[in-house]
Amino acid sequence: MDRSTLAPRYVLYAGPYLAGKHTSIRWITNHHHWSADRLKRPHTTEGGATYEVYFQVAHFRSFYPPMPFDALLALDSAASNREHLVKERAFMAQAQAVVFVVDPFRVGQNEDLVELLGRDLEGAGRDPRSVPVVFQINKQDALREGEAPALSARSLSWPRAAFVESTASAGEGVREALDRALAMIDEEARP
Predict the structure, then answer these.
(1) How far apart (Å, rounded) are the C-alpha atoms in residues 134 and 157?
(2) CATH code, 136
(3) Got the DSSP string for 153-167?
(4) What mean pLDDT value characterizes the chain?
(5) Lowest mean pLDDT segment, chosen from 65-79, 122-136, 140-154
């Protein structure tokens, strides 16, 4: 299929601070995307479909304790990041899928941020049940070595979820996570 005939896809990368969100995007796009601003890049899946993907990292959101977005924006300590936080929130209204990069060393924080993601999507006018989430279980190298606690998929609950293992620092599993998110968007679009 010609890339020009495919609709753009909007994918939000979320998860704890320093979990591997930016590193995943770097391996996928070959671009060092450290800012919180939107990045647009073509992406061809393993199956050969090409998409124009808009990436947004919930980067600044992960700096702060879990709280409603409006309360966060009202914090004096968030003043220097307010512009970026507003962009992240606006993207949530467009996001067609989320890749949630899980850090197995921070089980409680993962759970809190998954719950917060649902509230943030609702605050952006979305029904969280309509937005699929791919849980990219990162740092598999540490899990294999026994350095991180075993992670239970039951602790990561979402109505439409998929799970992909990764080691973002080595580029392992990151394309598969994005490909799965794109497939879930296409599944939702089918009649």
Answers:
(1) 11
(2) 3.40.50.300
(3) GGGS--SSEEEEE-B
(4) 85
(5) 140-154
